[in-house]
Every structure is written in structure tokens, then in C-alpha cells.
Specification:
Length: 445
């Protein structure tokens, strides 16, 4: 179960200014270097769709285009802890490093002639042209930075001001096309880099790689290999189809991230806190999450309702809010890492476990303790994606730990009375066999 630490209020001036004094010169030096190299190489490669020729040139949108420079600096004032300042700076730095590496590895050129602009707008275009040559295209660093900066502003605003932030951010995003700075493909690729930076450097808690280690669990290794093969197939199909088929590349990226979670990062790679995935993880994993949700509903369509196991403990699939309200549940123990949980007026706890990976005895004991604690609030639903394996093993552990079942077989029999399709593998049973009731439960409950 997770508890979030509230950030300390205030503005961290010295830390923020220190980062800006480093990031500002680094931005201009690295970005300019990539531009200079592309000009020296006389790059003429372009990646453009025919329909882009109908995008109008809108001179006044140079204003929102330039405005990101102002918001870049102001964004540091919205960080409310030293950790947030550092993570925000590392996001910006990572976006710069990844983008410049891409510019140098596969340089592209903007291919449309830019019409002349007069007055103030023309002066702003002239100032831009003095620094920004028609290179440094995919991924759009403008879009990557915009996502990182928008998250900072969006998190600090509410109501009409938040609507204004969102609208201006959308205008900045559109301006990369209407100022004839970028082709369309630069936008999704830039968004990908920005989201990866959000995922790599979360606002709070450990980073995904802070406790990473290659798994020695055979089930995780097998699943990592399968997800990686599926990721390569999806991405390859997307590149082969091109155009709208590139959405398959998004699925490939999501599956590759899932493979990385199984092989190296564990449940932490899903970045699920308080029932929701962090924004970067949620958007990167969206195609996989949708497929996982559809799969859960298809497998349980004939038995969507949870089953009462004993003494106010219910077992079932991950519910929606209506199911929680209709069932009268007062607590929810969520064992999924891959799916978001419903929100409502009930006590929520999460122990994110990887799907199709049997938990060990320590995880089962932790789940049993959580169930017994949540039971004090009233009827508790213990759930996973299907309600057949992860959650079933957790409830079985609770039955054993509290003396409500005296063997793994008797616990399984109790579960299958309510959920006939419950499946416990030999690995589940071995882990459950190590659980024994403490003395206070030796006589049952």
C-alpha cells in the first residue's frame, strides 16, 4: 500500500536558477551543434505527407511558438519540492539529449518554402531564422519540451486558469506546423520523447530504474520474451504500413515497455500510485492497457459478479465504480499493476503484482494482512484483472493465515464454491503451503 509524502510548499530559487544556468547554455550549444552538422552534411532527407501541403502558414502563431521559451523558465517556479525541481530539470535535460542524438543519427530537413511575414511577426521569424536552420526535425524538441512544461503548469492550476493553460499549450503544439517549422511526423515522435521523460523521472517516489535487476523468475523471463516478440511484430507492421498504420508502432512501444517491466523493472515500471498510472506511463501504455481491459472483460463476461468467500471478503475481477456501489463494498484491494482502479467513497489499497506471475509467500502474507486490515471497514473486494488467479491466491492466503482453511486444498475448495474458474498453479500452491496461521488464529475465526 502506498502513501504519498506531501511536497514542501515554496519556491526553490537557488536550485531552480542553478539548473537554468546550466540548461540554457546547454540547450543553445547542443541544438546549434546539431543544426550546424546537418548544414555541413547538406541534409536533404525529408519525411512529409502529401496532405501537409494544405496546412496554411499563419504568421501570428509565431507568438505562441516563441512563448515556450518564457514558460520554460517559469515552469521551475511551480515546483514545490527540491525533488520536483531536480526531476523537472532532468526531464528537460533528457529530452534535449535524446532529441539531439536523433537529430545527429537521422537528420531531416523541413521541405516547404516559408512565405514572407511583415511587421512584428516578420521580425520574430527573422530572429528565429538567425538561430534555427531548417533541420532538427524529428522528434520535435518543441513538442517534447511542451509536454514536460505543460504537466508542470497543469498541475498547478485549476478552473478557468487551467482551461487557459490547456488552450495555450494546444496552440503552441499547432504552431509548430503553422509556422512551417516542422512536418507532422515530428509531433508524435516529439510527444513520445516527452512522455518517456515523464516516465523516466516521476515527480515523486523512486525512478523506474532505481531498483532494476534482471529477473531470475522463469515465468517473468518467458513473458518478457513473448512481449518483446509481439512488440517487434507490431512496430514492424506499423513501419511497413506507414501513414495511419503507424499507430501500430505505438502498440509496439507499449509492449516493449511491458517486456522491460517483466524482465527488469517489475511492477514499478507501470508507475501505479493510488489506483492510477502516472501520466507518462498511462499514455505510453495506453494501447496495452486497452487490450488488457478488453481481455479481462471477455474472459469474465459470463461471470462478471464477484463471489462472497467468507466473513465479508469477496473475490472478483477489477470492478468499475458502479459495481463497487452496487455491491455495497467499503474497501478494495487491487492486485493489478496494469489496469487503473475505480475511485469512490471506499478505502483503497493496492499491491501491484505482475499478471501471470505467481506471487511468493512473502507477497501472499502481505496480501493476507492487507485483507484482514481492510475487513475492519466493512465488505472488502479483493480483485485482479479476472479474479481467477492473483486475487484468488491472495484470498487463499488470507483463509490460511486466519485459520479459516487448514490446507491449500481446503482453501481452494472454498474459493471454487464462489468462483468455479479459479486457477492456482503448482507454483501458487507451493507458496501457499508455506503460510501457517499465527497463534491468535489457531482456533479459526
Amino acid at each position: 500500500m502506498n502513501t504519498a509524502t506531501a511536497p514542501t510548499p515554496g519556491i526553490f530559487w537557488s536550485r531552480s536558477i542553478g539548473w537554468l544556468l546550466f540548461l540554457g547554455p546547454f540547450f543553445f550549444l547542443s541544438y546549434g551543434f546539431a543544426n550546424t552538422m546537418a548544414a555541413r552534411w547538406q541534409v536533404n532527407n525529408t519525411l512529409v505527407y502529401e496532405w501537409e501541403r494544405h496546412i496554411p502558414f499563419v504568421p501570428w502563431t509565431i507568438l505562441p511558438y516563441w512563448s515556450i521559451d518564457l514558460f520554460y523558465g517559469l515552469s521551475f517556479l511551480l515546483c514545490r519540492s527540491a525533488l520536483q525541481v531536480d526531476r523537472h530539470a532532468l526531464r528537460l535535460l533528457t529530452a534535449q539529449l535524446v532529441s539531439v542524438a536523433c537529430f545527429l543519427t537521422f537528420p531531416l530537413r523541413f521541405s516547404f518554402p516559408r512565405p514572407n511575414a511583415d511587421g512584428l511577426f516578420g521580425q520574430l521569424f527573422d530572429a528565429l531564422a538567425g538561430f534555427d536552420l531548417p533541420y532538427n526535425q524529428a522528434p520535435s524538441l518543441h513538442i517534447s519540451l511542451l509536454i514536460i512544461i505543460w504537466v508542470r503548469f497543469a498541475g498547478a492550476t485549476r478552473g478557468p486558469l487551467r482551461w487557459g493553460v490547456d488552450a495555450w499549450a494546444a496552440l503552441i503544439a499547432v504552431s509548430v506546423l503553422t509556422t512551417y517549422q516542422h512536418h507532422f511526423i515530428d509531433i508524435p515522435s516529439g510527444a513520445l520523447v516527452g512522455l518517456l521523460c515523464l516516465w523516466l523521472w516521476p515527480d515523486e517516489g523512486p525512478t523506474p530504474f532505481s531498483a532494476a535487476r534482471w529477473t531470475d523468475v522463469p515465468a517473468r523471463r518467458r513473458l518478457a520474451g513473448r512481449y518483446l516478440c509481439a512488440a517487434l511484430a507490431a512496430a514492424g507492421l506499423g513501419l511497413l504500413l506507414g501513414g495511419g498504420g503507424l499507430v501500430w508502432v505505438w502498440l509496439g512501444i507499449a509492449l516493449a515497455l511491458v517486456a522491460l517491466n517483466y524482465a527488469l523493472l517489475g511492477p514499478a515500471g507501470f508507475q501505479k500510485r493510488d489506483g492510477r498510472h502516472a501520466l507518462g506511463a498511462a499514455l505510453l501504455l495506453a494501447p496495452y492497457t486497452l487490450c488488457a481491459w478488453i481481455n479481462s472483460r471477455l474472459w469474465t463476461r459470463r461471470s462478471p459478479a464477484p463471489g462472497l468467500i467468507a466473513d465479508g471478503v469477496w473475490l472478483g475481477r477489477l470492478p468499475d465504480s458502479r459495481a463497487m456501489e452496487a455491491g455495497g463494498f467499503r474497501a478494495l484491494l487491487d492486485l493489478t499493476a496494469e489496469l487503473p482502479a475505480p475511485r469512490g467513497h471506499w478505502v483503497y489499497a493496492q499491491l501491484p503484482w505482475l499478471d501471470l506471475v505467481p506471487p511468493d509467500s512473502a507477497q501472499l502474507e502481505e496480501a493476507a494482512t492487507a485483507i484482514e486490515h481492510l475487513r475492519r471497514h466493512g465488505p472488502v473486494l479483493v480483485c485482479c484483472a479476472l479474479g481467477y488467479s492473483r486475487s484468488a491466491s491472495a484470498v487463499a492466503a488470507w483463509l490460511l493465515a486466519t485459520g479459516r482453511a487448514n490446507s491449500v486444498e481446503s482453501a481452494l475448495a472454498i474459493l471454487q464454491q464462489a468462483r468455479p474458474r479459479v486457477v492456482l498453479s503448482p507454483q501458487h500452491r507451493q507458496a501457499l503451503a508455506r503460510i501457517s496461521p499465527p497463534p491468535e488464529y489457531s482456533g479459526g475465526a
